Amino acid sequence: MDLNQMGQAAKSAATVLGQLSTIEKNRALNLMADELQNKASEILAANKIDIDSAEENGIEGVMLDRLKLDNEIIDAMADGLRQVSSLADPIGEEIKGWVTEDGLNISQVRVPLGVLGMIFEARPNVTVDAAGLAFKSGNAVILRGGKEALHSNIELAKVLRTALKENDFPVDAVQMIDNPDHAIANQLMNLTEYIDVLIPRGSAKFIQMVVKNSTVPVIETGAGNCHIYVDETADLKQAVDIIVNAKTQRPSVCNAMEKLVVQRSIADKFLPMVEEALHAYNVELRGDAATKEVLPDIKLATEEDWSTEYNDFIMAIKVVDTLDEAISHINKYNTKHSEAIITKSYDASQKFTKEIDAAVVYVNASTRFTDGFKFGFGAEIGISTQKLHARGPMGLNELTSTKYIVRGEGQARK
Amino acid sequence: MDLNQMGQAAKSAATVLGQLSTIEKNRALNLMADELQNKASEILAANKIDIDSAEENGIEGVMLDRLKLDNEIIDAMADGLRQVSSLADPIGEEIKGWVTEDGLNISQVRVPLGVLGMIFEARPNVTVDAAGLAFKSGNAVILRGGKEALHSNIELAKVLRTALKENDFPVDAVQMIDNPDHAIANQLMNLTEYIDVLIPRGSAKFIQMVVKNSTVPVIETGAGNCHIYVDETADLKQAVDIIVNAKTQRPSVCNAMEKLVVQRSIADKFLPMVEEALHAYNVELRGDAATKEVLPDIKLATEEDWSTEYNDFIMAIKVVDTLDEAISHINKYNTKHSEAIITKSYDASQKFTKEIDAAVVYVNASTRFTDGFKFGFGAEIGISTQKLHARGPMGLNELTSTKYIVRGEGQARK
């Protein structure tokens, strides 16, 4: 199908979808969930085509695992849709309401954005997640997955669309691009007439490619070169526990810790504690010259290390004299995602939270909490690292816009 | 000065500015206001250069008037800054705050966007307005005005910067590009490393040029092809009053009415009332075939008319059978700015406000109220016609982002 036609169809579907009641939207989400489970064997058959061709192409390990679907994963995707149906509907919420000096009643209410574009790599479950969140927030979505998961994605979208079609919901609320050509992705990134916002999901490199090539507004998600700064007043045992959690619990994700910044006055005592704790997880440490004085066996960090998101069992350490130095270092190298201070000093906590420029700034907690579910949003479409529209974990509210409704009794402007 | 250096200087200034207290920011705004009045003769001398060269180039009428400064206008600009100082400071406001299931205290607080780019045509007062609003909201601003007002803009920025510099405020919070080359404007539109958002002000054509050429995120402002729909239940006298106000009070602005949509059952009675009322203001009427049956002397509207923003004493009229037809016509041709229904029907008012896709939707009031001042924001940087980040009149809040501050007691993620 031509992308312009898909855009037009999405826009028409969005018009209908934007007017559905919460009950109707929830019914559709549950029907889509049921259909996923009913059609599990078809989905797994399509997935097998992707897995076979991935293996032929030498894809293995984590990359192959990410592609693989089974009945349990399909059940989890279906449950995900049911969970979205149980979330509060953001649409129609009155955010503010007031009466102006002219006697006009103004309400600012939440409305859908319209048509979302989602462009993503690997994991086919994004198809179902994104379709569910878009649907609940009243938006039509055009999806474009990675070519490795093409057959899985097409089948998943087909199943969701069947559930919509058979129950008289707007079928084009969920559309999947079935042409794996790069040229089509580029066309999608420039389909300004139909797409209100594009949300890329994938590696930092992939997201930067989308940002650079899109004229459709993009919400940048995901890159996280996250720091933890431990000052001289910190509870060092607590600091070690938080670092172990932030670095090792799931190092491949964007809210995992990548860099440790330590105040010089505690370096001699604290750094060996960190080395010992992380040794148990085989974390490779790198450090600046001052760190190497305390931990002589580790590798010297290069300038490149300070800006690198490893997404792996690697961590670089920087020693600083003061909080000011820690703040400038972090503000220089961070990706504006999640940064933490471990301290018992009230003044340091105030200064750090005010001056660090990031979506989420922590005091005495792990950066791993930057997450729509952990924040209590009940959903997550991504973590925005930009400042416009949405910043930090994005739930349903972040997929909405607003409009002002003004009710008068014949007012004209003087 | 090189644009990269300006960007870097703006970013540094923004860091300082973002941490200033409200009292300090207000003091700076008042000092800038005083300095404008103290340096009125220098400003008028610079303005004279622009006026002389405009006259040499054959610029006249409204275009020339827009360029002209006098003592009264300078006083008004200074008072504008003083008024901004009296507005509530958006920075630091806690928008939401809650405790998560893990016992983390989360606050979502307003922070500045960082560095704004303003690119505008003609009127030099935008220099002062934009500088004041940016400063109050904690943002540095890089301004680029039209070449006709180059000397005036440079002098105004110089005066504002003097007030900042002499009082130890970050002088690069306000910077004006003094090179009128188009190439520089293009560079500004792509200065993604330093500029967080670009706000164009000017004609619809100018704004579209900026949207197309920018990789920096743009907030689209201003284009307004505004409709008023009058249904068969309307108080026709009230409808005429609102139409006269919306069409004629200030036809050059974006919230002025451009199109009238009328329900067929009242066309015979209502259209002659409209013609008579607008005749007094020399408004040229154009209409579809059905309108011409009632008002045979008017020009037949073409397809182009339906999507044209005249910004002039011209109005096109469309006759429809039903509310549904009115809504589809408006949603097809409008610029998502301001749309109104005049009705006594509760059902029609509900349907219209729900289904019309626009920043502001009115019942029984003039579209001319779409304005930051009339909305009670105390300021206006523009009217956003896009759905991301801000929609409708933009005041100080719309020049901010947010960050999450998370306070814990050692929490690690399970």
TrEMBL record, chains A, B:
GO molecular function, one term: glutamate-5-semialdehyde dehydrogenase activity
GO biological process: L-proline biosynthetic process
Pathway assignment: Amino-acid biosynthesis; L-proline biosynthesis; L-glutamate 5-semialdehyde from L-glutamate: step 2/2
CDD domains noted in UniProt: ALDH_F18-19_ProA-GPR (cd07079)
Intracellular or extracellular location(s): Cytoplasm
Chemical reaction(s) catalysed: L-glutamate 5-semialdehyde + phosphate + NADP(+) = L-glutamyl 5-phosphate + NADPH + H(+)
Gene3D superfamilies xref list: Aldehyde Dehydrogenase, Chain A, domain 1, Aldehyde Dehydrogenase, Chain A, domain 2
Pfam family, one: Aldedh
PROSITE patterns hit by this protein: PROA
Record key words, sorted: Amino-acid biosynthesis, Cytoplasm, NADP, Oxidoreductase, Proline biosynthesis
Aldehyde dehydrogenase domain segment(s): 2-285, 314-403
GO cellular component: cytoplasm
Class of this enzyme: oxidoreductase
EC number(s) stated in the UniProt entry for this protein: 1.2.1.41
Coiled coil location: none
Function in brief: Catalyzes the NADPH-dependent reduction of L-glutamate 5-phosphate into L-glutamate 5-semialdehyde and phosphate. The product spontaneously undergoes cyclization to form 1-pyrroline-5-carboxylate.
Family statement drawn from the similarity comment of this UniProt entry: Belongs to the gamma-glutamyl phosphate reductase family.
Entries under NCBIfam families matching the protein: PRK00197.1, proA
PANTHER family: DELTA-1-PYRROLINE-5-CARBOXYLATE SYNTHASE, GLUTAMATE SEMIALDEHYDE DEHYDROGENASE
HAMAP family on file: ProA
Listed name of the protein: Gamma-glutamyl phosphate reductase
Organism field: Pediococcus argentinicus
